[in-house]
TrEMBL record:
InterPro entries on file: AAA+_ATPase, AAA_lid_NorR, CheY-like_superfamily, Homeodomain-like_sf, HTH_Fis, P-loop_NTPase, Sig_transdc_resp-reg_receiver, Sigma_54_int
SMART domains with a match to the protein in the record: AAA, REC
Residues of the Sigma-54 factor interaction domain: 151-377
Alphabetized Gene3D superfamilies for the sequence: 1.10.8.60, 3.40.50.2300, Homeodomain-like, P-loop containing nucleotide triphosphate hydrolases
Protein name (database record): Transcriptional regulatory protein ZraR
């Protein structure tokens, strides 16, 4: 199909695609591929032609080159995002031009392809883009979409999170979810997956801090029979388990540097090699990562690779702490009590509710749930009072966390330091035994000891 030629979509045809590329052979390749998939295409050779076609026809997908004679593909990405938000856009970029790809994803592109275009990847991308749920319909398949039922509260902070999740679900871009422990990072990752084109495939959560260092490569990439002692059969890893879906890497900052190198290559090449294998296999996964630490600080400290940081942190989603969402506490309490107790939960006295609203929640929503579980077990006459909450007075005081003028970070560091010192004292400073007592990995304990300046 020639550049600029327009054909109207016949009634009953499933989808129509806009192809924008200044190279005639690329346009022809894309047009033929789409035709064999039962799709129609209009082709444009410039930004100007693409603008004209977008004004004449509604498209279910746009494939655009990054470099065009009269502008950049990013102009098309932004135009469609502003005026035709239902249409996903995938960009085609020169091989190895990761900077362009990242810029396109941040601008709202669904995904990107590197030249020379691999037909298998192209077909997979097209199928994924066309299976995106319709925003206006408000449904995913046959199931209603209700982010407000999952991320509860009227605050502006949580409303922004819901809006971001809705946008992130319509792209394949890697997402980095930041926030304190207990703010709901894994829940946000699951919601992104459940609303995305990958929702029918697996969501595989991985706690990077819970895997022994010597097992990391085999756990992530799998292994072949006979690769090492005890490998009596082939086994798939996390990447293979998440094929077609989403791999959620929680506590990403806990990965040791050698494993970070292997993870970076897997993300860049979209290929992995099992331990003991001589061949690579292609994997199709979306990476969503999270950590309660500041990943940028880890880069500055030399414990996290900068190139991996830029790969996983294409778009950041910040989960707000509960202490910044006071107006969300009451609806959260109501929802959590129903979850804990069923249809007829106990009532919370006004004084108890006021204390919760004034509480700083260093453990965030997870801590609120634990408090309510304990309180419902202790309460009498189906009423939860202030004493049932068992809140420490200094924590419940508005404006402070622990000691006078102590910040939240100071308080958490003090409690963590004391817990580690107690565990070390009980184990005669045997760090392996102390880590086991605390329920953390040896590597995690070693990092915490160094960060807190604990000396034997």
């Amino acid at each position: 199909m020639l550049a600029g030629k327009t054909e109207r979509r016949p009634r009953g045809e499933l989808a129509r695609v806009l192809v924008v590329d200044d190279e005639a052979d690329i346009r022809e390749l894309l047009d033929l591929t789409l035709a064999r998939m039962g799709l129609s295409a209009d082709c444009a050779g410039s930004v100007t032609e693409a603008r004209l076609l977008l004004g004449q026809q509604r498209y279910q997908l746009c494939l655009t080159d990054m470099r065009l004679p009269d502008g950049e593909g990013l102009e098309i990405v932004r135009l469609i995002g502003e005026r035709y938000g239902e249409t996903p856009v995938a960009v085609i970029t020169a091989f190895g031009s990761t900077q362009n790809a990242v810029a396109a994803l941040k601008a709202g592109a669904f995904d990107y392809l590197a030249k020379p275009v691999a037909l298998e990847q192209l077909r997979s991308l097209i199928k994924s883009a066309l299976s995106l749920p319709r925003r206006r319909a408000g449904v995913l398949g046959d199931e209603p979409v209700d982010l407000a039922a999952q991320l509860i509260g009227p605050s502006a902070a949580i409303a922004h999170v819901r809006d971001m999740i809705d946008k992130l679900a319509r792209t394949q871009a890697p997402v980095y979810i930041s926030g304190e422990s207990g703010t709901g990072k894994e829940l946000a990752a699951r919601l992104i997956h459940d609303q995305s084109a990958r929702r029918a495939a697996p969501f595989v959560p991985v706690n990077c801090g819970a895997i022994p260092e010597h097992l990391m490569e085999s756990e992530f990439f799998g292994y072949r029979k006979g690769a090492f002692t005890g490998a009596d059969s082939d086994r798939e890893g996390f990447f293979q388990a998440a094929h077609g879906g989403t791999l959620f890497l929680d506590e990403l900052a806990d990965l040791p540097l050698p494993m970070q190198v292997k993870l970076l290559r897997a993300i860049q090449e979209k290929k992995i090699r099992k331990v003991g294998s001589t061949v690579e296999e292609a994997v199709d996964v979306r990476i969503i990562s999270a950590t309660h630490r500041l990943l940028g600080d880890c880069v500055d400290a030399g414990t996290f690779r900068q190139d991996l940081y830029y790969r996983v942190n294409v778009i950041e989603l910040k989960m707000p702490p509960l202490r910044e969402r006071e107006e969300d506490v009451e609806p959260l309490v109501e929802a959590l009590l129903v979850r804990i107790c069923g249809a007829h939960p106990p009532r919370l006295e006004a004084q108890a509710l006021a204390a919760l609203k004034a509480y700083s929640f260093p453990g965030n929503v997870r801590e609120l749930e634990n408090i309510l579980e304990r309180a419902t077990a202790l309460c009498n006459n189906a009423t939860v009072n202030l004493d049932d909450l068992r809140l420490a007075p200094e924590k419940a005081a508005s404006g402070s966390v622990g000691r006078e003028d102590e910040t939240l970070d100071d308080y958490i560091n003090r409690v963590e330091r004391q817990a580690i010192l107690d565990a070390l004292a009980k184990t005669a400073f045997n760090r392996t035994a102390a880590a086991r007592l605390l329920g953390v990995t040896f590597r995690s304990l070693r990092y915490r000891i160094e960060r807190l300046g604990i000396e034997e």
